[in-house]
Amino acid sequence: MYKILILSAAICIAYLPSILSIPKSIPNMSNCYGCSFINNLELDKLANRKLRTILRDKSLTKREIDDQIEDIIRTQSPSTNEKFRTMKDQDEQKEIELQRKIQLVAEKLSPEARAALQQMQAASSNKDLTVAESVTKFQEIRKALSPEIQTELAGGLKEILSTQRVAYLVGNGRGISGHGEQTSGNSGRGEQTRGNSGRREQTRGNWDPYARIIHLI
Predict the structure, then answer these.
(1) CB 202 within 8 A of CB 190
(2) 103 HSE (CA, 13 A, CB side)
(3) Greater confidence, 158 or 64?
């Protein structure tokens, strides 16, 4: 399977808004993409349960996630397998375009900011890191950044955040302008509740399924 549920170089964008505390205005984020992905595949109940468990397990390496998801798909019907492969093939083109945009942003950054972005990309593409270890790597990189570099990275990545695909990746932190409040949980689930005020609140884990399903957006 082609990097289906592993971190890619693009995953750094999912963390930069919360890492850098960047205010953001994001369009409709009322659905958990991980849940939509599972539902669209029409898995049987057992496979559905297994996949959701994998999506929430931060102790797995990206390579293990990749392999386990592939194993689950192989047990499903031919139509589900075909749908999965079609989604994978279509997304390869989307990933190429996103990588192109990231490269364009990197070229405009100062050497120090570019180096920080490259460190994030290296951590995100390391398939032998667990999900938890990847998060720790991002936190370590963030702590080493000066406020000036944080601001520069934030400004550069705003160019990519203009697309809904990447805007939805900014999973952690607050700041969904006009669409309620988002807070980060620990389970990796995407849940929604509606308070008395009618304001929608979405809780997403600090390793949200959507962020890990980079290649199926």
Answers:
(1) yes
(2) 6
(3) 64
